[in-house]
Amino acid sequence: xxxxxxxxxxxxxxxxxxxxxxxxxxxxxxxxxxxxxxxxxxxxxxxxxxxxxxxxxxxxxxxxxxxxxxxxxxxxxxxxxxxxxxxxxxxxxxxxxxxxxxxxxxxxxxxxxxxxxxxxxxxxxxxxxxxxxxxxxxxxxxxxxxxxxxxxxxxxxxxxxxxxxxxxxxxxxxxxxxxxxxxxxxxxxxxxxxxxxxxxxxxxxxxxxxxxxxxxxxxxxxxxxxxxxxxxxxxxxxxxxxxxxxxxxxxxxxxxxxxxxxxxxxxxxxxxxxxxxxxxxxxxxxxxxxxxxxxxxxxxxxxxxxxxxxxxxxxxxxxxxxxxxxxxxxxxxxxxxxxxxxxxxxxxxxxxxxxxxxxxxxxxxxxxxxxxxxxxxxxxxxxxxxxxxxxxxxxxxxxxxxxxxxxxxxxxx
Amino acid sequence: xxxxxxxxxxxxxxxxxxxxxxxxxxxxxxxxxxxxxxxxxxxxxxxxxxxxxxxxxxxxxxxxxxxxxxxxxxxxxxxxxxxxxxxxxxxxxxxxxxxxxxxxxxxxxxxxxxxxxxxxxxxxxxxxxxxxxxxxxxxxxxxxxxxxxxxxxxxxxxxxxxxxxxxxxxxxxxxxxxxxxxxxxxxxxxxxxxxxxxxxxxxxxxxxxxxxxxxxxxxxxxxxxxxxxxxxxxxxxxxxxxxxxxxxxxxxxxxxxxxxxxxxxxxxxxxxxxxxxxxxxxxxxxxxxxxxxxxxxxxxxxxxxxxxxxxxxxxxxxxxxxxxxxxxxxxxxxxxxxxxxxxxxxxxxxxxxxxxxxxxxxxxxxxxxxxxxxxxxxxxxxxxxxxxxxxxxxxxxxxxxxxxxxxxxxxxx
Lengths: 413, 413
What we know:
The first copy, chain A, is about 30% helix and about 15% strand. By secondary structure, the first copy, chain A, is of the alpha/beta class.
């Protein structure tokens, strides 16, 4: 699940309001309350001075802007005003709002990368992966059960799972917390792999005949982790935002084995939003095509390739971050295994979209609060049911933001 | 509320399955079940022969295609691949996913048409008006109440209101049926005006201190009804699909008076889909601009104007329909009042997007079923809690479909 920035919650109170942010923003009266929340700071714009707030709290994938600017007009689309009138994209498909070209390019991209089995799988499009997660939970929850289905995930899980499951107080499903301590047969286990906290691979921890599993594979792409085999789960959810960067297009997709589940997911999206933006699907189909073409039919004038860029930049960033951590002497980072990536054919280290930073200095118990006093905004460990010694730092923001972060971090002792 | 086609439910069983439709479609195994439902027939494509099925069951606004084709490149947009990376559209607005240009053009269009007060109103964008309706109900339902808030509407109401309120079995709100018979103080009344059944204006029937009202103004545009004054309600919901035709772009907007309600609606859309497609907003902002420019800065090369087209065509269609009804001698239609439209300055008749057709012939108790035997698909009165003598016919489909319909209708005796 992407879960950024808003499923982390513009509205979740952060432990310590950032009053200094308020000075940087202008808005309506009660927007002041929101402006005081770290994830409401303008990650959409880079820092303007050495003294600026560095906001790496959310996961806005603005790192990808420079790549797409480098691609020039290749990914551009022109849409005629009469193109998106009808509700229907494909009346021969029960997922009637799925644009056929979008579906073709998704299957083509998975085949190229080798990160998911698409043969004999239903493809369901959603308005971002968060809608698809809700659709999958709706589809897996019996409608005739007297008590809600339990939705669980292994700790450390993303704390926003809870409000996402419970914000409508559904009688069909409810958040039931840590999968590791869950007892019972009736459950849906969410498995986010690689983890959207620390980047490590995850597997389902529960096994039961009555249990169901949903795999959130938002980060199972070569830029973040070695591709070891094509994912082949009952329900696998992917998102455009973390695969190619276009979070603002609000698109995700699910690969689903079971017909009834795929139909019920379609029904959920039908009820929830009467389908999914055709314009976004047309745009992203074109961009997926550019990505696949760059590998299958490269053109000499522009040798840029998304996943090459997506490896190169994080390699450099993780190197810089580890140097800054070393220089500071008060932080530490997890070490990751290296494996052979079947897509690149090379041995590759895991390079998560987020750094799980730990403050080792005695007397500092809350890493995020300590960084906040230095105007570095991150997402504290307590958000994930982990120790506040840890904090999560986005690694996929713009260069200016990331460079200012490592520069400032290395100066902290 | 638009509520077409999918909130009417691809999945709602129609009284009598249309097996003959199945021959026209090809799809996966269980899609056969869906193909048997009238609203699943391809309204996205016009009839191919005199003998074709005429599907006027849903409300696919394909009538507008010919207008936008006539506008040539004026409404076209080109979007660069790097344009929609960030989640954020406007970090100075608590509705952080609202594209400023889209907001500007909405306010400009309302000012031009005079159909809604926008000054000192919050503007919330949604993935179609159905998401906004759910957001508004969420916003108006107390989170600390022991029993769900009652959502009501005056009969005849659209039967899909019920599943839309209840599909998640929320503990916050529930469908409570007919507003006219509702007793109590705690309710949310949905007022769809003009009605999405018969085109008549509606007003709230309940009045209570504890009661709330949501106005669905999808059809309050000059092509359907005379504009008599700017709507000024606590919550007014509009949709792109019925105003300019672009149902496939999945956009709607709400004008909201109260800050806390607007924030809670934003929070719902944040949780539900983490915002709204930027690409759709960029496209529709451009199309709104073309519409407003055509009135405020007309160009001699292309004098076409959306609302002029939107009046001209329905005037012609309603004339043809009344002639067909007269020729058949077995049907009747409601008569509508004429009023001066403040937008056109002319006396104008109400020309609803749907015809509420009644079969007067003795022995025919189910009008929709009778028409179905003649391969005319409509939405029977029973869907609206009304007599099956009535059926609802879409007036906003393509010319070919509409002409075939009136031709066939006039031949029925």
